Every structure is written in structure tokens, then in C-alpha cells.
Amino acid sequence: MQQAKQLIEKYYQAFNNGDMDTFLSLLTDDVVHDINQGDREQGKEAFTQFMQKMNRHYREQLENIVVMANQDGTRAAAEFVVLGEYLSTDEGLPEANGQTYRLPAGAFFDIRDGKVARVTNYYNLGDWIEQVDPQ
């Protein structure tokens, strides 16, 4: 359990540091990524492309991270707050002009051989849209 929690803490520390090499090294080659209110992608290459897109459109830091894991360390979950800035317009979403947002979020993980084998992210897309496009 402790190793699983440490893995997820390292995952989010690398994310917050913008250290994509370390961040991606914590994934299995066949990682499954369930995108919030979107598709399921598989493989480290697809995850890498997703993160490149995200880093073009958003600048984010996570705070108040709480990590939980099951007894055998094969599953974990995290809850956190996303502090973000919307840098450039993401297709199908409101126009970006540097809006900031604060968004509660969470993630669920499968862990295999000391790496993340699945990550499922969740946040309230409607809340995010209201924050960046409050018409």
C-alpha cells in the first residue's frame, strides 16, 4: 500500500514540476487512460501526445493532494484541486484568453509492477466551462 501511495505522490510531484520525462516514466507501456468525459486511449505514446496537447492549452498545478491505496497496492485514488490557466483555445471548448480556474478533481489508478497501468481522471466539465466562459 505504501509503495502505491508513493508512486502516485511521485506522479503528481513530477506533474507539478513540469517534469514530463519522470511523469511518463511512471507509466506502463500499455497504460490505459480514461479521459474525463471522453475516450479511452491506450499506450504510453497516446498518453504522451495527450499531455503535449494539454501542456499547449493549459498551465496547471495541483494542490491539496490526498492519495489513498488498497491494501495490496494494486489500486489507488487521489483527490486534489486543480489551479489552472487556460492558455490557448482547445478545439470544441470556449475561447481562451488566459482565464484562471480552480477545480476539484480526482483520479483512479491501477498499478502493475510498480507503475501506473490505468489512470481515470474526473472533474466537472460544466464547472470548468462556467469558470472560463461565465456568460
Task: Tell me what the structure shows.
- The protein has 135 residues and is α+β, with helices and mostly antiparallel strands.
- It has one domain: Nuclear Transport Factor 2, Chain: A (Roll), CATH 3.10.450.
- 33% of the residues lie in helices and 42% in strands.
- A six-stranded mixed β-sheet has the order 2-1-6-5-4-3.
- A hairpin with a 2-residue loop joins β5 (100-112) and β6 (115-123).
- The protein is globular, with a radius of gyration of 15 Å.
- The N and C termini lie far apart (45 Å).
- The mean pLDDT is 95.
Notable traits:
single chain; 135 residues; alpha+beta; Nuclear Transport Factor 2, Chain: A; 6-stranded mixed sheet; 6 strands; 33% helix; 42% strand
Summary?
The chain has four helices and six strands.
Overall shape: globular
**What is the string of helix and strand elements?**
HHEEHEEEEH
Mean pLDDT: 95
Rounded to the nearest angstrom, the radius of gyration is: 15 Å
Strand order of the largest sheet: 2-1-6-5-4-3
The CATH topology comes to Nuclear Transport Factor 2, Chain: A
Give the helix proportion (percent range). 25-40%
* Count of distinct structural domains: 1
Per CATH, the architecture is Roll
- Biggest sheet overview: 6 strands, mixed
Measured between the Cα atoms of the first and last residue, the distance is 45 Å
Q: According to CATH, what is the class?
A: Alpha Beta
Strand content: 35-45%
Spans with pLDDT under 50 lasting ≥5 residues?
none
> What structural class should be given to the helix and strand makeup?
alpha+beta
Question: What's the helix count?
Answer: 4
Q: What is the number of beta strands?
A: 6
